[in-house]
């Protein structure tokens, strides 16, 4: 029986050697991800339209669409990146010398995937399916563009380049009712009819997904309709990007909502009106056709706004607690207007 005595003495105990413990390895999980589109905004002052903008800012975008970099096939060790508020797959890829396709492939993402703060992206190492060879894309013809000159028409541009009017409209997201202005840059598609659908599907601005590009087109279209200058349209694009990441948000700081994070409590409209992207954009521009009348003050109501620095003009409308953050979007907005406008 365990624990009995022998000759009145306690039994002799033997200490058995313990087996060596296995070495533990910490595994870092890579989260699949998506483009963050949330910004909470803090207001300072009367009539503030919105909430506190996101941090940290994305790196500036170029003034022209970027050339696609070669997809990296392998790295000796995996490199990861933790998504910060305001990050996009495009911005992360560019900051690390990668192209969007390689980052998406390494993390199992699609074109419409959304990343969120705190998620971990794999920036190097083998892609999700290393056994399958990466298909080599077919050679793409060199992009042809045309900068609109005074007196140009879309039909004349199409004819001069040997393509149909509908092909040019489709390649640039335009309709027969669209208006072009001197300085606009049009994409001229290939003359092959089969290429037109692919060109139309690919019209998204650098750094923007399909939803953001659609909202940017709406801001541009309404600006053109109201006779706003390109400078004013760029201000509207950058303001919406700073306030909501060009997404029609149903939340925000305090009661801020929508593309421009306007506040019902400050007279910008009812929640339903503010969540109407068309109306919210017209209210931001303001002027004689402002749906709010004189209740709020839009960009066109600011005396001398055309001569103001980019960020100062945006701040005059939004009254943000972070007025300096609008400036980072001036260059990207110029690119978005050139591609989508």
From TrEMBL:
Residues 79-123, 144-188 form the LysM domain. Pfam families: LysM. GO terms for molecular function: lytic endotransglycosylase activity. CDD domains: LysM. This is LysM repeat protein.
């Amino acid at each position: 029986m365990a624990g009995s005595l022998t000759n009145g003495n306690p039994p002799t105990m033997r200490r058995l050697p313990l087996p060596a413990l296995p070495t533990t390895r910490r595994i870092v999980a890579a989260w699949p991800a998506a483009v963050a589109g949330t910004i909470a905004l803090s207001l300072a002052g009367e009539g503030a339209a919105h909430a506190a903008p996101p941090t940290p800012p994305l790196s500036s975008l170029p003034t022209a669409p970027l050339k696609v970099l070669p997809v990296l096939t392998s790295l000796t060790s995996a490199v990861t990146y933790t998504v910060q508020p305001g990050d996009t797959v495009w911005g992360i890829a560019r900051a690390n010398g990668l192209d969007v396709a390689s980052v998406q492939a390494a993390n199992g993402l699609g074109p419409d995937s959304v990343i969120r703060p705190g998620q971990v992206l794999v920036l190097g190492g083998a892609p999700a399916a290393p056994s399958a060879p990466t298909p080599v894309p077919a050679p793409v013809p060199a992009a042809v563009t045309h900068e609109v000159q005074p007196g140009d028409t879309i039909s004349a541009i199409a004819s001069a380049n040997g393509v149909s009017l509908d092909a040019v409209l489709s390649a640039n997201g335009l309709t027969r009712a669209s208006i072009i202005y001197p300085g606009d840059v049009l994409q001229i598609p290939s003359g092959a009819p089969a290429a037109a659908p692919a060109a139309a599907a690919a019209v998204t601005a650098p750094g923007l997904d399909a939803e953001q590009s659609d909202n940017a087109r709406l801001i541009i279209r309404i600006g053109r309709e109201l006779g706003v200058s390109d400078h004013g349209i760029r201000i509207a694009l950058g303001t919406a990007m700073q306030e909501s990441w060009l997404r029609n948000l149903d939340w925000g700081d305090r009661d801020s909502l929508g593309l421009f994070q306007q506040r019902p409590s400050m007279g910008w409209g009812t929640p339903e009106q503010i969540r109407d992207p068309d109306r919210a954009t017209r209210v931001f521009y303001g002027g004689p056709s402002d749906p709010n009348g004189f209740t709020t003050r839009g960009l066109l109501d600011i005396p001398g706004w055309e001569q103001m620095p980019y960020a100062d003009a945006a701040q005059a409308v939004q009254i943000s607690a972070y007025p300096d953050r609008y400036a980072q979007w001036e260059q990207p907005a110029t690119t978005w207007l050139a591609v989508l406008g």
